[in-house]
C-alpha cells in the first residue's frame, strides 16, 4: 500500500522576512530567552511536542503549547488570546487572520500537508480500500466537528464523494477536535473513525490497529500553514520558532509522522 503521493513543495515566506528571522534567531541567547505562546492544531500534537523540545534545547527559549481545533483557535485569537504563533490545520484560517490584521502580513508558510485515514483500534477491521464503510456492521463512526476542524471537514467531503454521507449520518459521532475523535476510536466507543495519519503512524509504520489511507483526490488538500501572530511581532522567541519550523531538523520530525 502506497502511503504517500508525490510531495508538493511548501510555500515559502518572503526572503526579507526569513533573513530578519534568521538574524534574530542568531542574536537570541539563553540570557534573553523568551516564552513563546503557541496555538497548535490537534493533529500536529506529537510532532509539535518533539519539535518544541528540540527547539528549546537548541535556542534556550521556552515554548508553551496549547492544542485544539483550528476554528476555536481562530475565535480565541480574534478575541485577544495571548498566542504569538499559530500552527494551523489548514491554510485558510491563517490567511484570514492575516487579512483581518491579527497576524503579521507575509509571515505565513506551509509547514506540512496532512493525510486523512479511516482507522480502527482493532487489527484487521478496516480494509485497505475502505469498503468497511459500505459493508461494516458498525454502530459508530467518529469524525471531528467539520465546522471547526479541517480534518473533520475533509472526512465529511470523503463521505459525500463516496455517496455515503446520508446513509451514515445516524452513526456519526463528532469529536470537538481530531484528538478527541482519535480518543473515541482508541477507547472503543466508536468502532472506527477518520483521524490524521500522524496520530496512528510513526517512522514509516502504523502504531496500532488497522487503517485505510484515504486517497488524496477524495478531499481538498490538507495544506497546513503556520503564521506569526501580532502578539509575536518583534519577539525573538516567536521569530526563532517560525524559522526553526522551516529548518531541516523540524522537517525530519514532520516527515517521520507521515506528513508530506
Secondary structure elements and their pairing?
Elements: H1 15-27, E1 35-41, H2 45-59, E2 62-68, H3 70-78, E3 85-87, H4 92-100, E4 109-114, E5 116-120, H5 132-135, E6 141-144, H6 150-161, H7 165-168, E7 172-175, H8 178-186, E8 192-196, H9 197-200, E9 201-202, E10 205-206, E11 210-213, E12 222-228, H10 236-244, H11 248-256
Parallel strand pairs: 1-2, 1-3, 6-7, 6-8
Antiparallel strand pairs: 3-12, 4-12, 5-8, 5-11, 9-10
The major β-sheet equals: 5 strands, mixed
Q: Strand-residue fraction?
A: 15-25%
Number of strands: 12
CATH class call of the largest domain: Alpha Beta
User: How many domains make up the 3D coordinates?
Assistant: 2
The CATH architecture of the largest domain is 3-Layer(aba) Sandwich
Number of helices: 11
What percent of the residues sit in helical stretches (DSSP H or I)?
Answer: 25-40%
Quote the distance from N terminus to C terminus.
Answer: 16 Å
Radius of gyration: 19 Å
Run of helices and strands: HEHEHEHEEHEHHEHEHEEEEHH
Q: So, the CATH homologous superfamily of the largest domain?
A: Periplasmic binding protein-like II
Low-confidence stretches: 1-12, 19-31
Amino acid at each position: 500500500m502506497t502511503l504517500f503521493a508525490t510531495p508538493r513543495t511548501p510555500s515559502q515566506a518572503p526572503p526579507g522576512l526569513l533573513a530578519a528571522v534568521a538574524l534574530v534567531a542568531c542574536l537570541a541567547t539563553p540570557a534573553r530567552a523568551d516564552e513563546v505562546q503557541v496555538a497548535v492544531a490537534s493533529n500536529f500534537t506529537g510532532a509539535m511536542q518533539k519539535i518544541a523540545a528540540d527547539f528549546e534545547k537548541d535556542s534556550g527559549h521556552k515554548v508553551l503549547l496549547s492544542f485544539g481545533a483550528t476554528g476555536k483557535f481562530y475565535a480565541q485569537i480574534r478575541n485577544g488570546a495571548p498566542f504569538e504563533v499559530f500552527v494551523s490545520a489548514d491554510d485558510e484560517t491563517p490567511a484570514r487572520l492575516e487579512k483581518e490584521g491579527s497576524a503579521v502580513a507575509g509571515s505565513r508558510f506551509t509547514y506540512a500537508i496532512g493525510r486523512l485515514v479511516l482507522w480502527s483500534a482493532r487489527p484487521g477491521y478496516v480494509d485497505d480500500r475502505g469498503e468497511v464503510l459500505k459493508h461494516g456492521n458498525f454502530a459508530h463512526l467518529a469524525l471531528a466537528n467539520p465546522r471547526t476542524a479541517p480534518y473533520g471537514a475533509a472526512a465529511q467531503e470523503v463521505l459525500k464523494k463516496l455517496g455515503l454521507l446520508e446513509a451514515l449520518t445516524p452513526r456519526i459521532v463528532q469529536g470537538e477536535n481530531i484528538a478527541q475523535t482519535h480518543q473515541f476510536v482508541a477507547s472503543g466507543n466508536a468502532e472506527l473513525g477518520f483521524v490524521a495519519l500522524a496520530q496512528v503512524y510513526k517512522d514509516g509504520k502504523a502504531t496500532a490497529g488497522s487503517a485505510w489511507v484515504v486517497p488524496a483526490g477524495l478531499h481538498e488538500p490538507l495544506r497546513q500553514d503556520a503564521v506569526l501572530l501580532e502578539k509575536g511581532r518583534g519577539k525573538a522567541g516567536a521569530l526563532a520558532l517560525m524559522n526553526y519550523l522551516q529548518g531541516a531538523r523540524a522537517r525530519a520530525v514532520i516527515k517521520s509522522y507521515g506528513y508530506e
